[in-house]
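Entry 14. Ran structure prediction on the chain below.
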Amino acid sequence: MESGYRKYTADVASGTLRYKYELPFLKGLSLEGFASIIKTVNYNKAFNYIWEYFERNSDGEIVQKTSRTVEDIGLREDFSQSTRITLNTKLGYETVIDEVHRINAFVAYEQMEYKDNYFWAQRLGYDSAQIDQLFAGSTDRSNWNNNGSASESARQNYFGRASYDFDRKYLLGFNFRYDGSPIFPKETRWGFFPGVSAGWVLSNESFMPENIFSNLKIRGSWGQLGNDRVDPFQYVGAFGYSNGWVVNGNDVRGIAATTTPNPNITWEVSETTDIGLEVGLMDNRLTFEADVYHTKTSDILGRRQASIPGYTGLVLPDENIGEMESKGIEFQAGYKQNVGNLNINLSANYSYNENKIIYFDEVPQAELYQKLEGNPIGSELVYKAIGIYRTQADLDNNVSYPNASLGGLIFADLNDDGIIDGNDRYRFPASGFPTSQFGFTMGLDYKSFDLTMLVQGQDGAKWRLDNGFSTGANGNGLEYVALNSYNLDNTDAILPRIRPTGVAAENNDFWYRTATWVRFKSFELGYNFPQDVMTQIGMSGLRLYVSGENLFMIYNNLEKYGAGDPEFLQGKGASYPNLRTLGFGLNLTF
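Output, C-alpha cells:
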C-alpha cells in the first residue's frame, strides 16, 4: 500500500518592458527605465497515508509497526498566488571635459507593489489511498479544516549617484537613497541614507616608477543603509479575537487588544566605513584587493524585556533601541595567463567577520558573564562542561547538581558558591553562521573548449550534536552517538549517557562543534563548434556543455558524526541536504 506523497508545483510568468531615450538638447543626458510584472502561482498537495516500519520491542525482537496511529490519514491542498509590479525610471548624465574631467551622475525613482493571497483545505478519514481527492475524505465536518489569508505591500524609493574623476588619478563619489516604507507611520516613513567615497590611483602619478604597478589604488568609503524588515503596522493598535470571555455562564469569543502601538517606530540604520587597497602587477595579470570595514547598526528594532516587566501583560511593539557592530576583512587575488592556445584565469577570495551586541534591553542577569551585551549575535546561556562522571569518586569530588549520576556531564561552578544552578551558565557563541568564508575559481580555455570550476568552504559556524533517540515512525539517531555514549560496558566513552534528565539535560558547551568544510561546488565543461561550420549550416553558434553542482566534499571535519551536509546541519542530520546535480545541454544561436 502506498505511504503517500508530497507534490509542489510553481508556475511563474514574468515580463519586462525597457526603454532608453537620448535627450537631444544636451549631449550625454538620457532617460531610461523599465516596467516589470511577475505573477506566481503555487499549488501544493500532500497525501499522508500509512506505512509499515520495523523496530525492536522490549524483548529484543524485531516487530512490524504501523505509522500514523494517532493522527488520521489525511489530504491537504494549498493554493497561493502573488503579483509584483515594479516601475523604474532614471535620468542620467555623463560627460568628459578637456579629456581630464569625467563626470557621471544619475537620479532615479522606483516603486513596487506586491499582493498575494493564500488558502488551504484539508480532510481526514480516508478509507483508501486510491482516491486522493478532498471529496473522498470523511463526511464528518469535524475532520475538515481550512484557512486563508492575504497581504499587500508597496515601496517608493528615490536614489542617485554622482562621481567625478580627475585625470584618472583622483576619484570622488556621492550617493543617496530616500526610501519610503508603509511599515512605518507617515511621520517616520521616509529615511534618507547618504554615502561618500574617494580614491587615489597612485599608479597614474608621475612620481611612481614605471613598469612596476599596472594598478595601485587606495580607496575609502562611508555610507548608511536602512532596514525595515520587521512586522508591519506596529504603529497601529490592533484588535483580534480572544478566548476566555464568559457571558451568561458560557465561554464565548470576544475582541481584545492584541498589541501596544508604537507611533515612533522607524528605520534601522547601518553605518559602514571601508578602506581598501587594489594592486595590479604585470599588466594586471596578477591582481590583489584587500578591504577592512566596520559597520555600526543603530536604532535596531527590538522589544523591551527589562524596563517593562512581563507581568504587566502588555504585548509590546518593536522599538528603535538596539545597537550592534560588526567588523571584518576581505581579500581577493587573481591571476591571468595565456600559454599558446591555453588561457588561464584563477581567482581566490577570503573573508573574516565578527560582531557583537553593544546594547540590548535584556532581562537583568545574576552574573556579569551572563550578559548578552558584548557578545556575538546568537550567543546562548550554557553550562560549562569539564568532564563526565565516570566513577563514584567523580561524584564525591565535584560540586554536583541534583540527581547527578554516573554517565552525566560534570559542570563547572563558575560563581564558586558550591551549588550548580542557572547562575553557573555563561554566554557561549553558538551561532550557526560562519566567521570565515573562502573560495577558489579556475577558468581554462583551450581552442573551442572551456572549463570552469568552483571550490568553496567556510569555518567558524557552530553545530550542536544531538545525543537523543526517539522511537516510532519518526525515530532517528546518529550511529556515532549510539557507539560512543557512556554505559556500564563503556565507562571510558567519549560521550556522556544518552538523553539524561534534569539539570544534566540542560544546554551546555560540550555538544557544540565548529564546522569547517571545503566543497567542490560546481564545474562546467563546454565545447563551441567552429564558426565556419556554423555559418555553413545557417547558425551563429552551437555550444554543448556538461555541468555539475555540489559534487563532493573535499574536507569535512564533522564527517565522523554522520549528520549529513555540514552546510545545513541539524543535531541528528534531519535537515534536507544540498542536492548533487548533473546537467547536460546545448546553446543554439541563430
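Helices lie at 392-397, 479-484, 531-536. Will compare against last week's run tomorrow.
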